[in-house]
Each structure stands twice: as structure tokens, then as C-alpha cells.
Amino acid sequence: MNSQPKLLTTxxxxxxxxRRELQLAVRSPGNTINPLMFFIISVSLxxxxxxxxxxxxxxxxxxxxxxxALLAVMLSMESLFRSDYExxxxxxxxxxxxxxxxxxxxxxxSHWLVTGLPLVLLAPLLGLMLSLPVQGYLPLVCGLLLGxxxxxxxxxxxxxxxxxxxRGGVLLAxxxxxxxxxxxxxxxxVVDAALTGQxxxxxxxxxxxILALALSLAPLAIGAALRISVN
Amino acid sequence: MWxxxxxxxxxxxxxDMTTAFLPxxxxxxFFLLIVGLVWGLGFAPPDYQMGDNYRIVYIHVPSxxxxxxxxxxxxxxxxMHMIWKIKMADIVAKAIAPVGGMFCALCLFSxxxxxxxxxxxxxxxxxxxxxxxxxxxxxxxVAALRNAFDSENAGxxxxxxxxxxxxxxxxxxxxxxxxxxxxHQVGSDLSLQAEGANPPEIWIPAFFMGFALLxxxxxxxxxxxxxxxxxxERRTQWVQDLLDHDLQEGLQRA
Amino acid sequence: MFAAxxxxxxxxxxxxxxxxxFSISAGEVLQVQGANGSGKTTLLxxxxxxxxxxxxxxxWQGQAxxxxxxxxxxxxxxxxxxxxxxxxxxxxxxxxxxxASRGFSDDAAIFTGLAELGLAGxxxxxxxxxxxxxxxxxxxxxxxxxxxxxxxxxxPFTALDKRGVAELEARIAAKAAEGGAVILxxxxxLQLSCPVRVINLDVLTGVSN
Lengths: 231, 254, 209
Hints:
Chain A is mostly helical. Helices cover 82% and strands 1% of the residues of chain A. Chain A starts with 5 loop residues before the first strand and ends with a helix. The N and C termini of chain B lie far apart (43 Å). Classes of the chains: A mainly alpha, B mainly alpha, C alpha/beta.
């Protein structure tokens, strides 16, 4: 140890954390691919179960895409804290001198980058398969872009609460799905408004407001929940 | 006042105080219930539109407010437990979750039996009904999370966090469901006529029934809290003494 | 430097310790002894701040730890039962993240540390391809790169061979010599070149020398 260590600022430390999460995503691509596959498969079940009539499909398209995206985000949550909990990295995260609030934000953000963002990018394709009218694509993507980070943050609270439990999976859904309802309502509302020729900017702003609220409060709840879970 | 409040925070004092207070609560609740039921079912005139069906509001409306108020109370208790680490607050919060959920369910069931003769269907996606349904989900989630933990301590803290997250979220849910409902309104006018149109013969029994149900709610959570106190404090001297005393009394009677 | 006063903790309605007082100053090594289930791990986790279910005061440089949590975390190194090593990542990636989360980056120290533990050449091999003993060493390499002044080590000698034990003992003595402080639990008889103070949780009487 004859060299001089370089001191890092908080943002430098957060950057290194982000890099670790992305490296992990590359090493275990299933964490990204499986929720995506779930998204595609469950959307394609709706025409099979409900009929392939294009008028019917286009009427249910926004709801189907949003609900399955919501479920896919919840399923992807397993990879957010599970391995860190099991190998003890979570303890080290809680014992880090960096502000926990920003570390948790960074962690959820990087998780969203590899799970939520791919869902958003894939959504137009699924819209096509469900005969979504052309004016619905932009609001669908914008809504998902503002809504899926909120879903990730809410899901992270649920995951942090249940990570210490051996059978947490179904419980996570029971806890988190009711709390995600506003995002679902406004998210589908954005698309419906666009399809009926109304102005949807106001609804997007509402989704943005919910995201801002989640960004400011969710890390506190996640932190409190993780402290309970590591104990 | 503060001292009283402080004393209530100790499980033992809570137990002693409620022992003195419970017979009164039983009496008042029973009285209100009898008056409300006899008046509401026997003497209040039938509604000119809905006939006798409307009488279900005597249960439906109070249970809705109790379910909602119960959650607010549970959230206060959860906050007190998290901030000041008051164990008694957690005991009460634990007692509220299933009872509040029951009142939600009661509200939904009574609403649905009212809906069938009135609107011709058991279920409509009305904003208030949907909000109550979601409130029921949240209650179930809080109770399920607490039960999922092996350690009492971890379970109560986790449930407190979730309860507080829920109280932040519930107004947003309520607002979103209202907005969603106006968008998808099916066209039937579900609202009751304005309160003022009801004659006092209808709303006075409702008043009695409201307080009677509140009494039942309070009785349920106090009894559940007392049980929980005995379980949690079973190793302490005062609970042992209490049990010995009860045992002696039982033996004397036998 | 680091002190605990009047610590009290109960678990599953059993009192693990009460009226526990001790302090540790620069250059000291403190060993926590006790039978299985006596609360050694619980005590260490309480001292780190991972377990809030206690009453009493814990201070660092005279200030309550809960008021200076982030500063204290910067001075603290904790080695728990779990390795805190992600098996999908390489030792280098794991250690780089660890250093960064402690606010510095020092690749040279990481390479030297790994080499000293006999892991030269394994820097870029994913940890899941290594043996349990090697993974344990990666975890210990964190100790070598750490710049913390207070080490809290829970059973650090587990899964180490004789040579590894001797090296780690030398490290602990060196840490004390350079003005650090070490609190540890172990079932193994310590052979350190510096004096060791002992707390025995079975007697619950506090510090004995």
C-alpha cells in the first residue's frame, strides 16, 4: 500500500455503485430478460383469451399494456435487493459513509435502467400487436417513461420490506399492487385521453408529480424498511 | 392531560384503565344499538323512492367512515410507534388492522345488498366503492405483512412502515379513483338525494347507529389490545398476579 | 475513542446483557467472549449500528453514534458472517465497489491486498468460480484496503488455514500498533503480539483484564 488512494466525492461513489449494478446486469442477463419475456407473453395471452378482433383489442390495449407492465416491474423487483441481502452487501451498504438516501435512489434508478426502461421501449411493439391506434403511441411511451420509475420506487419499498422473508414473492404483490393504482389509472388515462382526442399533457404532469413525490419520499421508506430487514 | 396520555402509553395502565372503562362502553354501545335498531327498523318511515331498502344505510354509512377513520388512527399509532417507540401504540395498531378490514368488508357487503334492489346490480365500479375496496386491500396487506415475520419486533416495525406509506398513498388513490370514475361514468346517477331532504325520523336513528357501530369498533380494538397486552407481558409480575387472582376467583366459584 | 455505557439488550424475552459498560481507545484490541447464543454477534451488530433494539449509549470520540452516523461509518470496518462479496462479480469489481462506497479509489492497494492473500491472478475471475476459502480471502481483502480506524470483526478466523490465521493475527496487531482499535469475537485462542482485553458475556460483569 505504497500508493496514494484517490478520494472520491459522493457523486463519484454513486457512479461506482451505478457501474457495479450495470456490471451485475451484464453478468446475469436473466434479471433483465425474464421480466421482458413475461411482459411479451402475458400481453399476447389477451388476444388468445379474449378474441383477436382488432376493435376489441384496440379498446383494451392501453389497459393491458399498463397492467402487464406493472406486473412485470413487480416481478423484476426480486433482483433489486435479494442477492445483496443474501451475501451481506446490504449490510455494507447501510454501513457506508455515503448518504443512504442517494445510494438507494441510485440503486433503484440503475435497476429501472435495466428492467423498467426496456419495458418502455418494448411497449410500442406490443401496442402494434394489440392494434393500438397511431395517436396512442407517443402518450403510451411518455406515460410509461414517467410511470415505471414510480412503480420501481413503490416496488422497492415492498421488496425492502419483504426481502428478509423466505416466502416474500406473493406478499410483495399484495402489498404493492394496491399502492400502484394511481399510476395505473393516470397512465391508462393518458392514452385514453389521446385516443379520444383530448389534451393529455395535464395527466402526464400528474404522473410527473407522483414521480416527484415518490422520488422524494420512497427512499426514506426503503431505507427504514431495509434497516428492519437486515436485522 | 399529558400525564393521562403518558399513562395510557404503558400497557399495564392501559389494561387497568380499560378494565374500569369497559363496562361503561359495553352499556353505552348496547343502549345505542338497541335504540338505533328499534327506531331505524321499526319506526323510521320508508323512503318514498327506495322503500325499506334504504335502512341498510344505518350500517353501510357508519362502517365506511369507521373503516376510513380506523386507518387514520392506525397510521397515527404506527407513527407513534416508529418515532417514539411506544409499544402500546403498536399493540393498538395491530388490533386495528383486522377490525378495520372487517368494517371495510361490512361496508362493501352491505353496499352490495343495497345495490341489488336499488340499482339492479350487486356491484358497480363507483368511485367510493372502488376506494373502499382498495382500502380493504391495504388493510389486508398490512395485516399479512405483520404475520409474515417470525419476529414480533420486526413484524411490527415493517407493518408500521407500510401503514405510513399507505396513509401517504391513500389520498392519491382516492383522487385517482375519483378522476377515473368521472371518465368512465356509466351514466346512472348513483348519488343519494341530498342530506337535507331526509326527514329527522330517518337521520336520528342513523346517528344512534353510527355511534353504536363506533362503540363496537372501539370495543373490538380495546379487547384485542388487552389480549395482546396479556400475551406480550405474560412474563411480568403484574400479569402473573392478575392470572392468579382470576384463578382464585374461579376456584371459589367452583 | 469508542465507548458503550449501560447497554441493555433482550431477545426473545431473554436478557442478553444489561449494564454492559466498556470503552476502547486507540491501540487496543478487545475480544468479546461468550457461549453460543450469548449475544456476541448481536452486540457487534449493535455497536455497528445494524441493530437498533437496545438501550444505552454508544459514543464515538465523545459523540453519540446515531448523531454522526455517516462520519462513524467512515471510520468503521465491519466483517460479519456473510462475505458481502457478490459471486457474479470479480474480486476486483467487488473491491472497487467497496472502496468507492467508502469514498476512495485505490486500485494499487486492491492488487497488493489480493496478492498478499495469495489471490494474485484471480483479480478478474468471477467469485463463483472460486473455492469457499478463496471467497473468504476476497472478503478479508476488504480489510487490507480499508482505511477505517475501528475494526469490528465477527469470527474473522472462520475458514482460514493456519497460515491465514497467523497473517490475520499479525494484521490485527499491526492495526493496534498504528493507533487503530479492534473489537472481535472468536472461539480460537488469540496469539497476538499486543495485549488483549476480554469481555465475557456469560459473566455479564463487564470488563475484566
